[in-house]
Amino acid sequence: MKEDKMILLGHSDGGVAVVMDLASELLGINQYDIVKNVDRPDCVISSRYSASHFFEKEYMFSQNLILPVQFGVHHSNVKYLLYHFFRKTHGIGNTRYADIIHSSTTYFGPSSVHAGGILIEPMALVSSMCQIGFGVTIKRSASVGHHAVLGDFVNINPGAVLSGFVNIGMGTEIGTGVTISNNVSVGKRCLIGAGSVVTRDIPDGVIAYGNPCKVIRENERWNGVVLEPDFSLG
């Protein structure tokens, strides 16, 4: 069944444009409420209306009107903030988030599973026996090898290649053209720079890049983000 409207949580930038095109093509969506996060999760406005306009419309959430929801932003820290804010204030849990898997995805292994709210762009590949977390984005021409585990809110950028048995922690972003070797684990809330070759495990909360990939510094994107207690998304 095709919906005609979607709530996009994110910024009115490239992330929104990509989701709008894919949702229009695959889900028949033709109307959007775009809500963006500005610095803090409690600063929420609509990018199409004045702030007062948005809060007048807030009953849409409080009345639990069922509309599909997607993230219109690819930065993992922003997705994390938006999800928890709208879950707490409006009860929008993971079952409300649409899955958008482009029809030109070269392969999505039938033995692989995902937790919902995923976005897979054209020409991506997800191999067999993978576990894909909630709110994951896999961009065009990226490849995820067999038995890979991707945590919630992970972002895989274009052309990245993840080999077999790779484990990527919650909130980590893998840059364009990155290669990750077999059996390597990358920690939570990391940023792996474009073109890096990752041959060894990477700890939590760092920026790392290079060939071979090395830890450079703390990942400041997550500074000030209050991490919620671990729980099953719902």
Biggest beta sheet summary: 8 strands, mixed
Low-pLDDT parts are 37-64
Determine the N-to-C terminus distance: 23 Å
Number of strands: 23
Q: Identify the overall geometry.
A: globular
Q: List the secondary-structure elements in sequence, H or E.
A: EHEEHHEHEEEEEEEEEEEEEEEEEEE
Task: Specify the helix fraction band.
Answer: 10-25%
SSE class: alpha/beta
On the 0 to 100 scale, the average pLDDT is 83
Q: Please, how many helices?
A: 4
Strand order of the largest sheet: 5-8-11-14-17-20-22-23
Rounded Rg = 17 Å
- DSSP strand (E) fraction? 25-35%
Structural features, described:
The protein is of the alpha/beta class and 234 residues long. The protein is 17% helix and 29% strand. The protein contains four helices and 23 strands. The strands form four sheets. The protein has an eight-stranded mixed beta sheet, covered by helices on one side. A six-stranded parallel beta sheet has the order 6-9-12-15-18-21, with no helix packed on it. The longest helix has 15 residues, at 76-90. The radius of gyration is 17 Å and the shape is globular. Residues 37-64 have low confidence and may be disordered.
